[in-house]
Amino acid sequence: MNAWHASWRLYGTPLIQVHRKAKITIGKDWIACSDPKYNSLGVPQKVIIKAVRPGAVITIGDGVGMSGVTISCGHKIIIGNQVLLGSGVLITDNDSHAIHPDLRHSRYHIGEAPVVVEDQVFIGARSIILKGVTIGYGAVIGAGSIVTKNVPAFSIVAGNPARIVGNVLDEKYAGELVLK
User: Fold this and answer.
1) CA-to-CA dists, residue 58 to 53, 71, 79, angstroms
2) CA-to-CA distance for 7 and 60, rounded, in angstroms?
3) Closest CA to 114 of 98, 130, 102
C-alpha cells in the first residue's frame, strides 16, 4: 500500500486489507466516503478494499471517487483516472469460492480474471462488476446493474445482466453539456 497522500479526502474510515505479498496503489485526489451523511443515497457500509491473495494487485488512478464501495481482488483490478463509483458498488475479480460442489471448500480452485475500469467511467449505485470485465473509456453503468461482459467505450449499460441501452455521445445527452 502506498503512503498516505495529502490530496486524499476520507469521509469516515475505510477498511483496507493487503496480503503481505499483494499490492494496492491509490492515486492523487482519491475520495472515499464511508459515512452516510456525506452521500445523498447514504452508504450501505464503509469503503472496503481488499487484496486477498499473494500477487494480487489493485491500482486506483487519480481523481477516483467512491462511496460505500467493496473491491475484492485475488488477481488484478485496475481502476483508471476520474472514475466515479456510486454508493454500494461491488467490484470483484474472483468467484470467492470454487463453483464445483466438491471443491467449494478449497482455496485453490477459485475462478479469477482481471477487471479493468478505464478512465472517466461512472458506475451507478449498487452495481456489481464481475471477473474478467473491461469497462471502456467514458462508459456509464446504470444503477443496480450486474456487469458480466465487456462494455465498449462511451456505452450506457443497464440491467441484469447489463446490456447496452444507449451511448453517452448521442445527441439526446448533448444538452447536459450546456451550463445553465
Assistant:
1) 11, 9, 8
2) 14
3) 130
Q: Which is it for strands 84-85 and 65-67: parallel, antiparallel or unpaired?
A: parallel
Burial class (CB in 10 A: 0-12, 13-18, 19+), 26: buried
Residue 4 confidence (pLDDT): 76
CA distance 58 to 71: 9
Report whether 117 contacts 154 (CB < 8 A). no
> Beta strands 155-159 and 162-167: pairing type?
antiparallel
Which class for 84: exposed (0-12), middle (13-18), buried (19 or more C-beta within 10 A)?
A: middle
The pLDDT tens digits for 12-39 are 999 999 999 999 999 999 999 998 887 8
Q: What is the per-residue pLDDT across 134-169, written as a single tens digit (0 to 9) for each?
A: 999 999 999 999 999 999 999 999 999 999 999 998
The yes-or-no answer on residue 97 being catalytic is yes
Look at residue 147 and give its three-state secondary structure. strand
What is the Cα Rg of the chain in Å?
16
From 5, 19, 75, 97, active-site residue = 97
Is pLDDT at 177 greater than 60 in this prediction? no
Q: Are 152 and 164 in contact (CB under 8 A)?
A: yes
